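Cross-posting from the modeling subforum.

Setting up a comparison between two proteins and wanted a second pair of eyes on the formatting. Protein 1 (sequence, then structure tokens):
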Amino acid sequence: MSKVLAGRYELLERIGEGGMSVVYKAKDKLLNRFVAIKILKPEFIGDHKFIDSFRRESQAAASLSHPNIVNIYDVGKEGNIHYIVMELIEGRALSDYIKEQGPMPYPKVIAISKQIAAALSFAHKNHIIHRDVKPHNIMMTPNGTAKITDFGIAKAVNAATIVDSTDGIIGSVHYFSPEQARGGYVDEKSDIYSLGIVMYEMLTGNVPFDGDNPVNIALMHINGEMTPPSSLVSGIPPALEHIVMKCTDKYPVNRYASADELIEALNNLEFIGSVVGNSVLMRQEQKPRTQGVIAETDYDDGGDYLEERPQRPKQQKKPSSSSRKKPVIITVIIAAVIVAALAVCYFMGVFGGKEIKAPDLSGMTVTEAMEKAAELDLKVKEGDPVVSEDVEAGLIVSQDPAAGDTVKTKSTITVFVSSGPGDGEVPDVMGYDEEDARSAIEAAGFECEVKEKSSDANAGEVIGQDPQGGAQAEKGSTVTIMVSDGSMARTTVPYLKGKTLSEAESALQGAGLSVGSVDYAWSDTYAEGEVMWQQYDADTKLDKNTPVNLQVSKGPKPTQPPTQTTETPSSEPTSESETVPSE
């Protein structure tokens, strides 16, 4: 009998497996539709922090509704089974396409990249970062639509991605950003880096960094030089290669500021190709002229050159009125195309201006940078603020183009200004002792303030904090912890029965308690002076200084004195003349 989750999801067949989960095709009996259900592997269910993060991120991702994102319908738990119910995609993973086809035609690469970037843009605007963009997580439908999956679980997996084994997770190292490999701050630009690696793989059929050891691959992302795609595969437009290399720059500030900016660059590339033709994109040497006419060239979908068409002799005939108009129309069209191409090139800064070295604007304010740039006939534009623990807020962290790069006068340098150390996650220190709590808070980049509070907890134990653990707060700000002063700490009642009153009093004082009222009673069990009853049973937890009432034995109750019985003498003597009371 097949397994049914939540009384509605009937598991039909296994259709995939990753490093952390198994995917099943299932039928939603309530809505009568097929779905995909991703179930966490057993080795992850014991990590409660992982499960909590998994649930929060999956629920957040369920709010994303976009044509290029696999929809999440439900998140649930049944017993030890944690699962996500998702849209079932009829198609295959992009990784399968790359494995089968090898290098893909660059127009197709642009089309797929724009769809992925559109999905990331939508997610980023909803404050969700994927963190694991790779071909295995991109599904391709039969009509060519790209859909990203695994939104939400990537953040939960991220902390264990390199450390934990399992093939699927280790594979992600090939698409890590350098900051992920270092365990540093991750934001939207990390997703852009990973998408750049995916674009590289689509163009060349290979990832830029590979090896047997995942740690070595991670180090390559941090320190290794990436081979340009055109060195591996011919026919890649230099402008597209520039986009890929900018996406995969090792410094986040040098990448595209957002997925929207990347889409704009890809759109511009497509527009120029449609206006001026692939020859401008490819920047190949001009073909030799034949009889004063530029030789015609054809291009296939991938932009590769075909053989030149030989000039065919044409028979002369009397030009008609329509034939005389044709050259005029063609000339007008060509002129319009050239003007449009020149306009695009102008606005993209392809030509114009004197070449100089870009000045170093780091450490300056924007005003100071503008003044410095104006001296060199350059302009300054402020980009998105960046988080920096090293550069003071308000000062420039980096710039694009970088200092020393060749730029043209009248061009614009984009500067990225520090917004300070940014926010960090406040550690949860409830239950820690004061010293450990202070160390954890300071290690996370916050200041620690300690306040004492009366409590029944042990002295020095953290009983409260503000902000709460897990909250986001500006690094350098103060986290206040409330520490128990121990004044209301509870204690355990000792066993007092059989002790003398003085012994019981000493035992109670030793436990931080006191003797309450004392009652005396007869007892055949306890000797005189021994405690035979206590108000609270032994091992009961009480607040310190609580009085405990006792009952002390007076010893056995004394017997009644014997009573004399006088009998009327009988007429005849008996054998016993007096009655002896029974003992």
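Protein 2 (same layout):
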Amino acid sequence: MGSYLKFIGKKLLLAFLTVFAISVFAFLIVHLLPGDPVRVMLGAEADEAAVQAMRIQLHMDQPLVKQYVIWIGNILKGDFGKSLVLNLSIRNLIAERLPVTLSLTVPAMVISIIFGILIGIVCATHRGSFIDQLLTVLMTTMNGVPIFWIGIMLMYLFGVNLKWLPLMGYVSPKTDFLDYVKHATLPVFIMCFGPMSSIARQVRTNMLDVINQDYIRTATAYGLTTSKIRYKYALKNVLIPVITLIALQIRSIVGGSLLAEQVFSIAGISRLITMSVMNNDFLTVQALVLVISAFVVAANLLLDIAYGFVDPRIRITGGK
């Protein structure tokens, strides 16, 4: 157990260093712009006095290291500054938009993991059958078709023709859960496509390899039920590389949320960052890059810790 705690400590340290490196990159976004970053933000026709005042307000008249210390210090206090375009507190914008994106991405990730694993197991245990070929073709197609095209087709089918689901917009689950489900069904569905197909194909490949191992044949010889062999013994070994894939798919979910928010006109965090980039609101971009990256790092950290629960060797050796 002590070695496993050391393993967790190393992962925590690595996550902290990663967030620190991301914070440096996010801070440098403004300074990597060609020309005067303040004039870029305010526009070429901005008055020189206004540019100078903004430079002082943003501490850009200070040395670069001091600027970073002031910026990261304010962020640790919860002060992200004010959006230059919306003239609103960035902290309030994040608090308003982030729950919207999480209410779409979290269900999409959970559904992708559950159904991806189940589909992979079904394909592996029925290898060569009609259901295996059908699901394999379906997963491959899902992974290759553009998300925005799928979203438009689903909107036309379920929104325009059948009128089962609303075409666009968002309702918070706290306001009306049933209405939230109606509005979130299509965005969550299209966000599942890529991650679910990748997880299903990985599980199928791993399961085909595992079910031919000696310990599986031994368990079968002892008369254990097929479901117990699949889900108690085989699935544990299948999940070890799948956890790594899930960590990679988190980034795909975030990218998918951007397209989903654009297609369905949802005011989430991904749409906010797009608007901020297009309008040169780099203070908001800095904050959003840091916050989103921190969420991804935290999710990856939890998955690294989950290795120890899936693979006893990590608990014993501490990941060596």
